Amino acid sequence: MNQLFEPSSLSGIRVKNRIVRSATHEGIADEEGHPTEALIALYTRLAKGGVGAIITGEAGVQRNGRSSANVSLMMHRDDFIEDYRRVAIAVHRYGTPILLQLQHCGRQTNAKAIGGTPVAPSSCVPDMTQNLRGESPRTRCTWSRRVGEGQGRHREVGSGGSPIQRCGASLPRT
Predict the structure, then answer these.
(1) Which structural domain range is residue 71 located in?
(2) What is the per-residue pLDDT across 120-174, written as a single tens digit (0 to 9) for each?
(3) Which secondary-structure segment (H or E) carries 58?
(4) Would residue 162 count as lying in a domain?
């Protein structure tokens, strides 16, 4: 039980204990997907309360892959960087790392949520110069750059079945 409160690391990121706030959908982003003051206050309370690390709710990387869940986070344009920087600064004040969960909902979204037709992998073999969503590999670097400029550190944690990695890591067992 004492190990729960000991420092550790999560994919090379130092955490002050093994209590990790898992990714959930908070539903308190604004209509465009920007983090709100209420969201910053939530993450700040968690950090101040002593959680070892925070994994945010999903943040969409493209408008056509936005979650159909009410007011979900987005990170698909550069104008979001400053908002996420404010989130990171508030949480880092308490020595707590925060990991942004990037996602693309593919066929799990709907036309109303994205204002168009959902896109997803098909049974066709894609051109290897592009990923399954029709983007060049450079697009993924853009997402990483946005996270980095928002005071986060980009890490691919775990491995998913698509070009967009899913967070599936666990703390090391002792």
Answers:
(1) 2-149
(2) 775 343 443 444 455 544 555 565 566 666 655 544 443 333 333 333 333 333 3
(3) strand 53-60
(4) no
How many independent structural domains does the chain possess? 1
Spatial distance between the Cα atoms of 16 and 52, rounded to a whole number of angstroms: 5
Burial track 146-157 (b if 16+ CB lie within 10 A, e otherwise): bbeebbbeebeb
Torsion, Cα 32 29 131 164, to 10 degrees, reads 170
In a domain, 33, yes or no: yes
Angle between helices 137-149 and 81-92 (to 10 degrees): 50
The token duo for 174 is: 């002792």
Q: pTM, whole model, 2 decimals?
A: 0.72
- CATH number, domain of 115, equals 3.20.20.70
Give the H/E segment covering residue 145: helix 137-149
Q: In whole angstroms, give the CA distance from residue 156 to residue 169.
A: 9
